[in-house]
Design goal:
Length: about 210
């Protein structure tokens, strides 16, 4: 068994699919954010080094991140591989990763930008009970009155507006496109249609990664 890398734009349901992959393969999920938090909590040498960068408001350099991943891969639950989420972000990181761990498949969840914009924009929630609605797909029965609690205070997040979503998508594509090509050249990129029902995306991934 070897590790899996998961890519997906914001709003593509990557978190849900990560859970499906973990259930199917038994691999633990490794995200750099969680790993950094764990290293800081454990107070390891690398953790402290990472902390010094973060406190200075600087990016944690690749050498530290790679060191942390190397440490993480030594742990018992990682012996059959892991599911990398949010890593690698650059070709330099991918090359470094190659020296630590064999990557079996890189799953790229692909959804047209227009569909992501449609999904994310138009979301709103009830300030009282947290019920989530969508202007187009799941509106309240009475405009701006919560179906669950009859609350009248609807919350629309400022970062869910179209310009913000489009610039996040652009940043994602700029970052991911070279990596996708790099992994594609290695013959291990699995492009999955993310523009379908959640269960169908999951089965496409599961059959693609070979169980
Ligand atoms: Zn409510």
């Amino acid at each position: 068994m070897a590790s899996i890398v998961l890519f997906g734009p914001p709003g593509a349901g990557k978190g849900t699919q990560a859970v499906a992959i973990m259930r199917k393969t038994g691999l633990p999920q490794v995200s750099t954010g969680d790993m950094l938090r764990a290293a800081l909590a454990a107070g390891s040498a690398l953790g402290l080094e990472a902390k010094s960068y973060m406190e200075a408001g600087a990016l944690v350099p690749d050498s530290v991140i790679i060191g942390l991943i190397d440490e993480r891969m030594q742990q018992e639950d990682a012996k059959n591989g892991v599911l990398f989420d949010g890593f690698p972000r650059t070709i330099a990181q991918a090359e470094a990763l190659e020296n630590i761990e064999e990557i079996k498949v890189v799953v790229s969840i692909e959804v047209p930008d227009e569909r992501i914009v449609e999904r994310i924009c138009g979301r709103y929630s009830c300030s009282d009970c947290g019920a989530v609605y969508h202007e187009k797909f799941n509106p309240t029965s009475v405009p701006d009155v919560c179906d669950s609690c009859a609350g009248r205070q609807m919350n629309r997040r400022a970062d869910d507006n179209e310009d913000t979503v489009r610039s996040r998508l652009q940043a994602y594509h700029n970052q991911t496109a070279p990596l996708a090509e790099w992994y594609s050249n290695k013959g291990i990129l699995l492009r999955v249609n993310g523009d379908q029902q959640i269960e169908d995306v999951a089965s496409e991934i599961i059959s693609g990664i070979g169980g």
